[in-house]
């Protein structure tokens, strides 16, 4: 583990495909770049961040505003939100909006939620995706500089996304997701919109795919991977707060980054 001081203690960790750096977000939404064990403050407002796109690093603030920093992104003043709009942000109503999932309607009893207000962003080398407060999936079109809402039909009307992970496969881009309606993990082909139930376990909060295996994190911060042979989940570790997949350029190999105690 990296010991960076109590003010920099990470809640999320990412590895960059551009160099050997690791990027972390702390509990105060501060973004730090870690190189050779040293932490460089890069920004202070992100709730989600992605490092795996070829062109740039991307971050989203708690208000849903998007920023980018063109790689290699060596200084905090290189972040900009020009030419990077957010999806259309609109308030939703639990009574009149029939497209909302039951879990989202329950949350609306306690707080207002907004379609298009991104709370998670993920990327691979060529694509950028986002998940908003009401479980919608969005994809950014770099040609039109606009966000496209992608609706995936499910056995229960449609997917309400609780967590998303994008993977590049031989047959196209694939999402590994948790569906907020039934709390189950699924694999979705973005080319065909066909989905496949991964397992009937329904107590996970995050999901990722790495080295041929599905990894998942539950409410109690316990990390598991799915053993395909026995079709059961194998315990890996506890006190893990966040999982992500990135590429380290020096080894040209993907790795799963599990944030424990940095």
Question: Topology, please?
Answer:
Blueprint: E1 10-15, E2 22-26, E3 31-35, E4 38-43, E5 46-50, E6 56-61, E7 66-70, E8 90-91, H1 102-108, E9 114-115, E10 118-123, E11 128-132, E12 137-141, E13 146-150, E14 153-154, E15 157-158, E16 161-169, E17 172-179, E18 185-189, E19 195-197, E20 204-210, E21 213-218, E22 223-227, E23 232-237, E24 242-248, E25 253-259
Antiparallel strand pairs: 1-2, 2-3, 3-4, 5-6, 6-7, 8-9, 10-11, 11-12, 12-13, 14-15, 16-17, 17-18, 18-19, 20-21, 21-22, 22-23, 24-25
Helix content: under 10%
From the spread of the alpha carbons, the general shape counts as globular
Radius of gyration: 18 Å
Distance between the termini: 5 Å
Low-confidence parts, pLDDT < 50 over ≥5 residues?
Answer: 248-257
Number of beta-strand segments: 25
Number of helices: 1
How large a portion of the residues is in β-strands, by DSSP E? over 45%
Rounded mean pLDDT score: 87
Largest sheet: 4 strands, antiparallel
Strand order of the largest sheet: 1-2-3-4
Q: Name the helix and strand elements from N-terminus to C-terminus, one letter apiece.
A: EEEEEEEEHEEEEEEEEEEEEEEEEE
Structural class: mainly beta
Question: What can you tell me about this protein's structure?
Answer:
- By secondary structure, this protein is mainly β.
- Helix content is 3%, strand content 50%.
- It has one helix and 25 strands.
- Strands 1-2-3-4 form a four-stranded antiparallel sheet, with no helix packed on it.
- Strand 2 and strand 3 form a beta hairpin.
